[in-house]
Amino acid sequence: MFVKLVRLSRDAELRNINGNTVLKVNAAYDIGRGDNKKGQFIDLTMWGSQTEKLLQYLTKGKQLLIHADDIEPYYYNEKAYLRGKLLSLEFVAQAKTQDAHNESKSNGYQKQSNNLDDDLPF
Question: pTM above the 0.85 mark?
Answer without folding.
Answer: no
